[in-house]
């Protein structure tokens, strides 16, 4: 096929078929996200999808990955160059389905919406300009930034993009046709006339009629029967299975990795027999590096943060290797195609773990010796959210003095999401928004959304202490909720903090010093190698490893408790010993021949432990 000249992608008059240059066309799409794949591996992953029988790549554009600060866009650095990714798809003879949001879900922080939107306390998300013009003004700026990048890449202009999705699974959030139409109009205003499509579960589509004028319909968890149902109810436009799940997402604390036993063979066989269009979500998941992994809230209101790996039990695993699923599906799809499939690309090399051996970090620094200046105190207003202070990710330290004789019960049950508490520099326990295994909670004196009994401050400081002591609450932001009605998910201490005393009285603590600890690249690069109290949790550890050759590897953090790992300044993501993930993926392009620096920040450990290397996720 020739993707260099202009092509016409359209729908048949009866809505029965997608048409490419007037001929019926089956979309066989595999989804992958440039933000989750090192740029050096983009081509390899696209070739893997093609070798499995796909003719198309679907991709999300994560708005908050490209506009991390209001009005400042980045479509060039690292793996943010989506134009380059789309052109690479074209060079590999692959079409593209573009899913630019503004909301994408994707198990990504806040579903791809920028968290700076939440600085406005009464903001309404995913709504039209009549309901909240602030939100839609930000969306319009984002789409206006995308339009000149995307327009030359549309199929009619010789690019590979066949369709653009309007929003994502909006029927699972609300019913507001004017919002979807307003989004469509933004693209039209920029000179992009489609084709467009929407994505929803069948039940949500039927209930809320979340379609756009003339737009095709994609179904989440769709199958042949659901496509037939949609064709009956919406006969003027074609339908496809827009998210077919070969695996599933995994949350911290679950018993194992989800989706391992899924088998799509029957579903794929039906699609191929009937030449129905589909998109595998995901054919390759990759990794939610840094702080971008999202979260869910279950029906009971329990917060469920997502693990760092987005392996998803997909046919192409986190490292880009073909799994048994991949080989099975490739053979099935190939049996229906007249042409032979390309050879499976060579696997990416892994590091020889046995020759390198386990890493043994040593104490490097303390967060307590690296505090920035406190923000100007807001008297009498109590602690506020990360977003109020203009911080997206990482940690915030809240500090207030209390009398040395005070003891009682501290109520920070509204913490989002994980807090360690210190009284006079002594660890006093903590509070977690996510449910914790009993053994973990007991060993660390961690409460689940419940008040924390504090020890006597005088006893911590010694009998001769008469002045006030510092109560310090170090709050970690885990992933923001990315799906459902609880989408507005601010981080930090969101409710007033109180202390109930032994006599039954309750004190409101409303005078706080606040220290912003974003743990971003700039913060890590300027760490001072200081540690005045090595027995106080909140420590950085460092290891140096000499490599004669590089390759992909995983750092096994089974011996550690909860924290973050950087390799040569690259944030690999969070680890947490409640599992099921215990290994963090490190791609070879982030390593170098010669010396490599591994930095670990652990919220709880004060003793370094070995870090073995591994050649797979589990």
TrEMBL record:
Residues 383-515 form the Beta-galactosidase 1-like first all-beta domain. Its EC number is 3.2.1.23. Keywords: Glycosidase, Hydrolase. It comes from the Bacteria. PROSITE patterns: GLYCOSYL_HYDROL_F35. Residues 18-335 form the Glycoside hydrolase 35 catalytic domain. The active site is at 169 (proton donor), 243 (nucleophile). GO terms for molecular function: beta-galactosidase activity. The keyword Repressor does not apply. It catalyses: Hydrolysis of terminal non-reducing beta-D-galactose residues in beta-D-galactosides. Residues 539-596 form the Beta-galactosidase galactose-binding domain. GO terms for biological process: carbohydrate metabolic process. Signal peptide: none annotated. It holds the Pfam family BetaGal_gal-bd. Belongs to the glycosyl hydrolase 35 family. This is Beta-galactosidase. It comes from Paraburkholderia atlantica. The lineage of its organism: Bacteria, Pseudomonadati, Pseudomonadota, Betaproteobacteria, Burkholderiales.
């Amino acid at each position: 096929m020739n993707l260099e000249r202009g092509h016409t992608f359209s729908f048949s008059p009866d809505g029965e078929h997608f048409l490419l240059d007037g001929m019926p066309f089956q979309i066989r799409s595999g989804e992958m996200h440039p933000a989750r794949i090192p740029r050096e591996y983009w081509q390899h992953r696209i070739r893997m999808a093609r070798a499995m029988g796909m003719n198309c790549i679907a991709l999300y554009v994560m708005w908050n990955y490209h506009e991390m600060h209001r009005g400042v866009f980045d479509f060039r650095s690292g793996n943010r160059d989506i134009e380059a990714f789309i052109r690479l798809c074209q060079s590999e003879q692959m079409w593209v389905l573009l899913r630019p949001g503004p909301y994408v879900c994707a198990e990504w922080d806040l579903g791809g919406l920028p968290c700076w939107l939440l600085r406005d306390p009464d903001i309404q998300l995913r709504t039209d300009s009549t309901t909240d013009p602030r939100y839609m003004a930000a969306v319009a700026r984002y789409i206006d930034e995308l339009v000149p990048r995307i327009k030359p890449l549309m199929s009619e202009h010789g690019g590979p993009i066949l369709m653009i999705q309007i929003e994502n699974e909006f029927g699972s959030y609300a019913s507001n046709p004017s919002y979807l139409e307003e989004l469509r109009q933004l693209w039209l205003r920029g000179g992009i006339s489609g084709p467009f499509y929407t994505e929803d579960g069948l039940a949500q589509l039927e209930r809320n009629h979340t379609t756009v004028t003339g737009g095709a319909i994609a179904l989440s968890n769709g199958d042949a029967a659901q496509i037939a149902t949609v064709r009956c109810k919406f006969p003027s436009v074609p339908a496809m299975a827009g998210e077919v799940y070969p695996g599933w997402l995994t949350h911290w604390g679950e018993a194992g990795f989800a989706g391992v036993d899924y088998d799509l063979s029957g579903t794929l066989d039906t699609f191929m027999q009937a030449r129905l269009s589909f998109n595998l979500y995901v054919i390759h998941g990759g990794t939610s590096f840094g702080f971008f992994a999202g979260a869910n809230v279950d029906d009971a209101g329990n917060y469920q943060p997502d693990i760092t790996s987005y392996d998803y039990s997909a046919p192409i695993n986190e490292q880009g290797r073909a799994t048994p699923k991949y080989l099975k599906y490739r053979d099935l799809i190939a049996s229906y195609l007249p042409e032979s499939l390309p050879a499976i690309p060579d696997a990416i090399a892994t590091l020889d773990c046995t020759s390198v051996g386990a890493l043994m970090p040593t104490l490097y620094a303390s967060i307590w010796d690296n505090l920035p200046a406190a923000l100007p105190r807001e008297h009498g207003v109590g602690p506020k959210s990360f977003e109020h202070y203009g911080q997206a990710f990482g940690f915030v330290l809240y500090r207030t003095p209390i009398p040395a004789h005070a003891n009682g019960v501290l109520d920070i049950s509204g913490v989002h999401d994980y807090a360690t508490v210190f009284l006079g520099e002594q660890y006093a326990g903590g509070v977690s928004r996510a449910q914790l295994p009993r053994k973990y909670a007991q060993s660390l004196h961690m409460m689940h959304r419940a008040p924390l009994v504090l020890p006597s401050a005088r006893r911590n400081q010694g009998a001769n202490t008469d002045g006030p002591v510092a109560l310090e609450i170090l709050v970690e932001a885990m992933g923001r909720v990315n799906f459902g009605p609880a989408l507005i998910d601010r981080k930090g201490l969101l409710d007033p903090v109180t202390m109930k005393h032994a006599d039954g009285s309750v004190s409101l603590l409303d005078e706080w010093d606040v220290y912003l600890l974003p743990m971003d690249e700039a913060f890590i690069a300027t760490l001072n190698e200081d540690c005045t109290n090595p027995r106080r949790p909140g420590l950085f550890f460092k290891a140096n490893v000499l490599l004669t050759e590089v390759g992909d590897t995983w750092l096994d953090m089974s011996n550690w408790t909860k924290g973050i790992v950087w390799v040569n300044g690259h944030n690999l993501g969070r680890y947490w010993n409640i599992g099921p993930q215990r290994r963090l993926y490190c791609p070879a392009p982030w390593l170098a021949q010669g010396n490599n620096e591994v930095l670990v920040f652990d919220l709880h450990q004060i003793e370094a432990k070995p870090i073995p290397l591994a050649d797979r996720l589990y």
